[in-house]
Amino acid sequence: PSSYSITLIPGDGIGPEIISVAKDVLVLVGSLEGIKFEFQEVLMGGAALDATGVPLPDDTLSAAKHSHAVLLGAVGGYKWDKNEKHLKPETGLLQIRKELGVFANLRPATVYSPLVDASTLKREVAEGVDIMLIRELTGGIYFGEPRGFGTNENGEEIGFNTEIYATHEIDRIAHFAFKVAQKRCGKLCSVDKANVLEASMLWRKRFLAIAQEYPDVELSHMYVDNASMQLIRDPKQFDTMVTNNIFGDILSDEASMVTGSIGMLPSASLGASGPGLFEPIHGSAPDIAGQDKANPFATVLSAAMLLRYGLGEEKAAKRIENAVVDTLNRGFRTGDIYSAGTKLVGCKQLGEEILKSV
Amino acid sequence: PSSYSITLIPGDGIGPEIISVAKDVLVLVGSLEGIKFEFQEVLMGGAALDATGVPLPDDTLSAAKHSHAVLLGAVGGYKWDKNEKHLKPETGLLQIRKELGVFANLRPATVYSPLVDASTLKREVAEGVDIMLIRELTGGIYFGEPRGFGTNENGEEIGFNTEIYATHEIDRIAHFAFKVAQKRCGKLCSVDKANVLEASMLWRKRFLAIAQEYPDVELSHMYVDNASMQLIRDPKQFDTMVTNNIFGDILSDEASMVTGSIGMLPSASLGASGPGLFEPIHGSAPDIAGQDKANPFATVLSAAMLLRYGLGEEKAAKRIENAVVDTLNRGFRTGDIYSAGTKLVGCKQLGEEILKSV
Ligand SMILES: CC(C)[C@H](C(=O)O)[C@@H](O)C(=O)O
Ligand SMILES: CC(C)[C@H](C(=O)O)[C@@H](O)C(=O)O
């Protein structure tokens, strides 16, 4: 039987509750599929700040690097919102992404038919939406240098960041995206702002060059402002999308809301080699933390992505995804996706129902 | 009687058709309100490139600077899409914004009740949406230096831009936004990415400082990724929003789509002094150019904003806005906002109907 070491990072807010459910699901699926997991739980974000003074302790990073995959809950909370940048929970998240080299962030926006009415979009617009948004995750304005504060020639304070991409950063995300598109419908839409930004012009130029190697993929380009419209106007026009770090941050949240249920959406962050990082798209929801109200589906589905993309265990991944659909079909819902006629349960009980469906 | 000089910039694509309608409306309203206009028509964008080799000829800029207000159709088209940056139609637009110093871009996203079903959002979500989005227009990554292409230490090609804000740039848009919020519901939401970007941290710090001078305005902050979700989840939570140049580009297009009819939405770009620039939010729509299919409402409503914000002619502005509502109520629609039971007309005829309603 295969055996894997998994780093669990519960993080802050609802993180511990949802990670606990996902862990139980992994254990059960593993026992059914002949997969053994060894879990190591470590601190990151606010929890790490409180315990160690930094948002990403060395031990955490080392555990992550030496494991086969990392499953993360969420980080952040009001308590640390006013911290200086290097002492923000979010900084720990950015650091671990960079340190693991997970440049490709897969963010599926899938409408689950039992939940289609949760979308604020009309049923006929939302139904059947199935977008794979790929976000470049370790470059661009998130990490570009120079950055910081300073004084300009008039003695005024300035704040600045650098949006920057080098050819190899664009090329690797492009190859990644073309390959994903190949396995899906063969349609790839690259989103940029090449009518204004040089960084986007290089992005577009490289995508056009690399497209030559993927004659079976139909590449299109869209400006980011238009993309943010088109996602609402007609989300079904999109299959696979790819964009830079900051545009991906904005568009993936927008796309998730098209599905109406951000509590359902997982993500996978992958590098060229080494462990991947898997986490729900939603945040740490400090307002409902510790109240057994959190929706664990997105984390459970992130565990499925971990199995598929992190470990190559497709059968086990499918088993989790089927269990999620079955649990939905049996009518179990947390508050965020509840609607009349379904059964409202807490995070723990939903976890037990998912286990029954596995 | 008051007399004003107006620079008309039809631009490219459908620009000439919609500007022609707006001009007729201005003339009629002027004659009824005792306002005289002197129009000067000049070239910009692709039209200027073809005629003069540059996207913003000196004559155009000089005419604009010496007039009381500038009314613009739209620029851009496939024909010039592959031009180098300094020869793109869009570059002319960015230059005129910068040269006129119009740092404050007002983009209302208003749902017209006869058109509420044009939104892809559910009626109860879209109905009554009335957002004033204020976008900083002459700073940030659109104009930040350094920018360009180069080679990094590995000999690779790089493309880079600088997101940069100085205190005075933030302060003036903040004052502007607080004042707009004061005249509306007294709620201002500032959108940034202060958990990651230093430029946003300074932005937030200055907004917090300036908020002290506006105790009657309730200031809130939202991260841009969350804002892009919230605009779909519950757009009615927003009254006045303010954000930087690039986030404003993305969010204003998204907000416009919430209303379902980008063909209805005008904009005003204002500086500390000098003429303002008024233009529809939509683009030049090269695919329907010259076919008498364009929707002139957004340009006509931009003319109303020109009267209100550019010339202080509130009564004339209201007259135009009322005429638009009346024309809608009488059932006239262009193709983009047509629905069963209404009367489909071309751009020209819609213009005539608006004149009747004036
Ligand atoms: C928490 C924040 C730093 C992060 C980001 O901006 O990448 C989050 O919004 C995300 O999308 O994962
Ligand atoms: C055409 C383009 C340069 C422009 C911008 O990005 O500002 C447009 O999208 C807009 O929003 O007015």
From TrEMBL, chains A, B:
Instruction: Tell me the route in metabolism or biology where this protein functions.
Output: Amino-acid biosynthesis; L-leucine biosynthesis; L-leucine from 3-methyl-2-oxobutanoate: step 3/4
- PROSITE patterns documented for this protein: IDH_IMDH
Keywords attached to this Swiss-Prot or TrEMBL record, sorted alphabetically, are:
Amino-acid biosynthesis, Branched-chain amino acid biosynthesis, Leucine biosynthesis, Magnesium, Manganese, Metal-binding, NAD, Oxidoreductase
Q: What is its EC number?
A: 1.1.1.85
Write out the GO MF terms: 3-isopropylmalate dehydrogenase activity; magnesium ion binding; NAD binding
Q: Does the keyword Membrane apply?
A: no
- Show the stretches that span the lipid bilayer: none
Q: Which SMART domains match?
A: Iso_dh
Which InterPro entries does the protein's record reference?
A: IsoCit/isopropylmalate_DH_CS, IsoPropMal-DH-like_dom, Isopropylmalate_DH
Q: How does it assemble?
A: Homodimer.
Report the sequence similarity comment from the record: Belongs to the isocitrate and isopropylmalate dehydrogenases family.
Q: What is this protein called?
A: 3-isopropylmalate dehydrogenase
Give the organism the record lists. Glycine soja
Q: What is the lineage of its organism?
A: Eukaryota, Viridiplantae, Streptophyta, Embryophyta, Tracheophyta
